[in-house]
Amino acid sequence: MKLYTFLVVGALLAIAISCKTATPKGVTAVSLEELDDVLLIEDIQLIDVRTPIETEDGIITNAKNISYDSEFSTKLLGLDKIKPIIVYCKSGGRSAKASKILLEQGFVEIYDLKGGYDNYKKNKVQ
Fold first, then answer.
1. Domain coverage including residue 106
2. 86-126, pLDDT tens digit by residue?
3. Among 89, 98, 102, 110, which one carries the catalytic annotation?
4. pTM value?
């Protein structure tokens, strides 16, 4: 019985950990305090991966909307892989997934805004 309980608890922990979206290795997570400095990087590409409907709530100045969907990889073809890129979504989950795809496609300097647009809107004055 103890072994069964141990296995069930272990399985539940593994599921819980795997469901948490973490910043992929090779991607720099950026706080709101660091955002202004990162935005000063020459030729930075600012990408909003929310849906067009979500962007009606607002968008960070100079951001380009490239919705994270089944066509996301194809939509990246117009971006420069050498230039730094910062991504954000509504709360941080999709931007972490988008960052992983950016890494897989060969982008070399990737930043992910912690807490996404919700955090930005709540704590930043535009």
1. 23-123
2. 999 999 999 999 999 999 999 999 999 999 999 999 998 55
3. 89
4. 0.78
